[in-house]
Design a protein that fits this description.
498 residues, alpha/beta, Rossmann fold, 3 domains, 4-stranded antiparallel beta sheet, RNA-binding
Length: 498
RNA sequence: GGUCGGGUGGCCGAGGGGUUAGGCUGAGCUCUGCAAAAGCUCCCACAGCGGUUCAAAUCCGCUCCCGACCUCCA
């Protein structure tokens, strides 16, 4: 299948045809979490975005190496010296070693990823595991003259860099304005310019996490790990680099400068940025106190939550918006998504229960054409900068067809078998492999539940045979009260549990 | 303040010069013992004011709101 995949590149600010450096291979990097606390739903939206990108690229035939880092080295929240190291701060709070904190929240992150159906990346490198690579990169940058040492710290010299290269293009920054805008009384500032950033930071011996370097004991600069690890596993230049919109500046801007400063080459061909998940219009973040943790979502235990929500409907909810738009997180939006999700799943189930049988009646060309068109459209939507929102809209159209076949409103044999198989393959691929929203959410002993329901429904069938509808309805109503919905269809009784 | 993005029907959310987004909600109908599910139909929106155009929600200008980044942040 020919795909004209277009990706919106944040650097050039336009959608461009995706042409990998070395097809069929694709190198993709996306910024992972700093593991000093639990990931929240906002974080998850970005990871989900790139999970779908990864899945789609593979689906259309690319061999993707997907690298997503774990930031497990603490970084000072500002370069001036008075910054806080989040991991160390947390370690003190929980009375644990920094590496215990890192372990704990890495595990938490992985659990959440699994629950939300995120594929593990090909490589998940850690910052602390690549201190050597980072030091080597610093050496290169120093050798090229784009960094300077002050008291055991190394700073990237943005002004110097700008004599030969561009800085600020990705985030649209003007360095002069940046410097002007940040005229704090920085008497103790070691940096030549406020725009310079640490690529190695000297720390005192009472800092728990610290490493030996040619410039003394210290910690690597935050931006450096991505540059070093991206280069190590994907090469000096690779295809896609993703991350949250909030990482554009300074993080990604600095990454570009570091790579160019070290190797004189633009590191990334397509920069992708996922937009923020908002709550009442404001960015969801820990510091604003408006964040939701996955566990709070499943249990419904959160002041702003009216009920509990299962992971797959939430994943679906996120995918219903385009990744470059903000998405507002509200109860009503979530509930609407929940219902839409259920609807899609009904069609999904129906599709896989349908058995194609040839009929004497001839096929209907218009019907065949319609189905084939839908199957083509879903892909076109995805090829247009991963427009999952539009792809889902097409999936709903397909769902309507499927339900009509199932109900016999349109006879299945109005389409030929090949078209039916195309519909089945396409729809299933999107639900299972691309959007990956098919995970079973049921809890408890499924086998026993099924047995039990079988018994109950058998009894109800007897009751109904006697036309004792009062008793029949009572069974149905009572089951509904505990979340089991009984549906009396044409060919038998079915039930669903929420 | 600087830079960037956005304001779409009751709600969420796509699109982005002319042609149906889609989902949820609501109303009606079909099917059904009744429900539910499913199907069909209806509710034709694009912040405001100007301008360009045969044609603007979509382009341009101005105004008003909102948000992100400029500190750590997905």
């Amino acid at each position: 299948m020919e795909h004209q995949l277009k990706i919106y590149d944040s650097l050039t600010r336009e959608k461009r045809l995706f042409v990998p450096l070395n097809p069929p291979f694709v190198g993709m990097y996306s910024c992972g979490p700093t593991v000093y606390n639990e990931v929240h739903l906002g974080n998850l939206r970005t990871f989900t975005t790139f999970d779908v990108v990864y899945r789609y690229l593979m689906h259309i035939g690319y061999k993707v190496r997907y690298v997503r880092n774990i930031t497990d080295a603490g970084h000072l929240t500002n370069d001036a010296g008075e910054g806080v190291d989040r991991i160390e701060e947390r370690a003190k709070l929980e009375r644990l070693e920094p590496m215990e904190i890192v372990r704990k929240y890495t595990d938490n992150f992985h659990d959440v990823c699994r629950i939300f159906n995120l594929l593990p990346p090909s490589i998940e490198p850690t910052a602390t595991g690549h201190i050597v690579e980072q030091i080597e990169m610093i050496k290169k940058i120093l050798a090229n003259g784009y960094a300077y040492e002050v008291n055991g710290s190394i700073y990237f010299d943005v002004r110097k860099f700008m004599q030969k290269y561009e800085y600020g293009k990705l985030s649209g920054r003007n360095v002069d304005e940046l410097i002007e805008g940040s005229r704090e009384l920085d008497g103790q500032e070691e940096k030549k310019n406020s725009v310079d950033f640490a690529i190695w930071k000297s720390v005192s011996p009472n800092h728990i996490q610290r490493w030996q370097s040619p410039w003394g004991e210290g910690i690597p600069g935050w931006h450096l790990e991505c540059s070093a690890m991206g280069t190590k596993y994907l090469g000096k230049q690779f295809d896609i680099h993703g991350g949250g919109m909030d990482l554009k500046f300074p993080h990604h801007e600095c990454e570009i400068a570091q790579s160019v400063g070290a190797d004189d080459i633009q590191p990334v061909r397509y920069w992708m940025h996922a937009n923020m998940l908002t709550v009442n219009g404001d960015k969801m973040s820990k510091s604003k106190g408006n964040s939701f943790l996955p566990m709070e979502l499943f249990t419904g235990k959160h002041a702003m939550l009216e009920k509990a929500y299962a992971p797959m409907p939430v994943r679906f909810f996120m995918l219903q918006a385009h990744y470059r738009s903000t998405l507002d997180f509200t109860n009503s939006a979530l509930q609407a998504a929940e219902k839409g999700y259920a609807r899609l799943m009904t069609a999904y189930k129906a599709l896989n229960e349908l058995v194609y049988t040839k009929a004497a009646a001839p096929t209907v060309p218009a019907e065949i054409e319609e189905v084939q068109k839908l199957c083509k459209e879903v892909y076109e939507k995805m090829d247009d900068d991963f427009n999952t929102a539009e792809a889902i809209a097409v999936l709903f159209e397909m769902g309507k067809k499927i339900n009509s076949y199932k109900e016999g409103l349109i006879t299945l044999s109005s389409i030929d078998e090949a078209t039916f198989n195309l519909l089945k393959t396409t729809f299933n691929a999107f639900i299972k492999d691309i959007l990956a929203i098919d995970k079973e959410d049921s809890t408890g002993d499924d086998g026993k539940e099924k047995e039990l329901m079988k018994v109950i429904l058998e009894l109800r069938k007897d009751v109904r045979a006697r036309k004792d509808f009062a008793a029949s309805d009572k069974i149905r109503d009572e089951l509904l009260k505990i979340g089991i919905q009984v549906k009396d269809g044409k060919d038998g009784v079915t039930w669903t549990m929420n």
